[in-house]
Amino acid sequence: MKFETKRCAHCEVEETPQWRNGPMGPKTLCNACGVRYKSGRLLPEYRPKASPSFDSSKHSNYHKKITRRFR
């Protein structure tokens, strides 16, 4: 029997208190990404610090830091 680990479609985190709806369907985003997606603030540069794909030179978990880069 093969078990696949569920991952967030945006940040690839495997553990979250709640799975949320995203652009790819129900329960495809972790809690952090799902909240940002629903509010319209989910940008490619956003990653929760716990994400395995988090790279501090490319990503941030603060919306203000991300929007400052576009100015």
From TrEMBL:
Compositionally biased intervals (Basic residues): 60-71
Keyword set, alphabetical order: Activator, DNA-binding, Metal-binding, Nucleus, Transcription, Transcription regulation, Zinc, Zinc-finger
Keyword tRNA processing: no
GO BP terms: cell differentiation; regulation of DNA-templated transcription
Subcellular location per the Swiss-Prot or TrEMBL entry: Nucleus
Family annotation (InterPro entries): GATA_TF (IPR051140), Znf_GATA (IPR000679), Znf_NHR/GATA (IPR013088)
Domain GATA-type: 2-38
Pfam families: GATA (PF00320)
GO CC terms: nucleus
Region (Disordered): 48-71
Statement: the UniProt record of this protein carries the keyword Transmembrane helix: no
Molecular function (Gene Ontology), one example: zinc ion binding
Family: Belongs to the type IV zinc-finger family. Class A subfamily.
Function: Transcriptional activator that specifically binds 5'-GATA-3' or 5'-GAT-3' motifs within gene promoters. May be involved in the regulation of some light-responsive genes.
Protein name, UniProt field: GATA-type domain-containing protein
